[in-house]
Amino acid sequence: MNQPLAGYAPAPVTARMENHGSHMLKVALQTGNDLYARVGSMVAYEGFIQYEPNPPAVRQIARDWITGEGAPLMKCSGDGLLYLADYGANVVVVNLGGDAISVNATNLLAFDASLQWGVERVKGLAKFAGQGLWNTKISGQGWVALTSRGEPIVVDCGSGEDETYVDPDALVAWSPNLKVKGKRSFKAQSLIGRGSGEAYQMAFSGQGIVVVQPSEDSTDRLRVRG
Q1: Does domain 17-212 have CATH number 3.60.160.10?
Q2: Residues 121 and 50: beta-carbon distance below 8 Å
Q3: For residues 85 and 25, is the Cβ–Cβ distance under 8 A?
Q4: Neighbours of 4 (CB within 10 A)
Q5: Over the range 185-196, which residues count as b (16 or more CB within 10 Å of their CB) and which as e?
Q6: CA distance linking residue 116 with residue 137, whole number of Å
Q7: How do the domains of the chain map onto residue ranges?
Q8: Which of 25, 33, 108, 166 has an alpha carbon 20 to 30 Å from 148's alpha carbon atom?
């Protein structure tokens, strides 16, 4: 019985966070090195791990969270291996190494509790959107796990004058040092995205990356807030 399933067995731990296949995240937890993870994302664990939904650090930021209903995060602590997933979405693991990343709330699976994070206004879009658009910025030394509806593409914007245009409904994350502005394209409204009305894109320029998923999920994408 074990032989046909041998190829699916967990591999030896080589990093704090790593993929187990394309759709699952494996996290090596140690005491004092806690993790924030999306509520409901735990699919399995080994060892002694405790879970605290809506911990104090999250409640402090809850009023500014993109959903407006509080951050759907839990604190994971203890010693063992933790496996996370989000309805079969692809998982992308990022070691920030002192850098920062701006992430859509719906694409945030887990991140080290030692990282600095918070909700911030997306610069360059307030005038375009009327009230402003908000996202989650994470920075510092540590690991972040993102989800993508399908295998994503990572676009290197480079440092030239050309801009990279992205459908907001397909946007996963980007380097926060990039310049961002909005663009409306009335003639392309039937060719871009899945919605109706005018076509709206986000234009990125500067030095950094943009992560784009092959799916246009507009359920919680860069929600406009007052």
Answers
A1: yes
A2: no
A3: yes
A4: 7
A5: eeeeeeebbeee
A6: 8
A7: 17-212
A8: 33
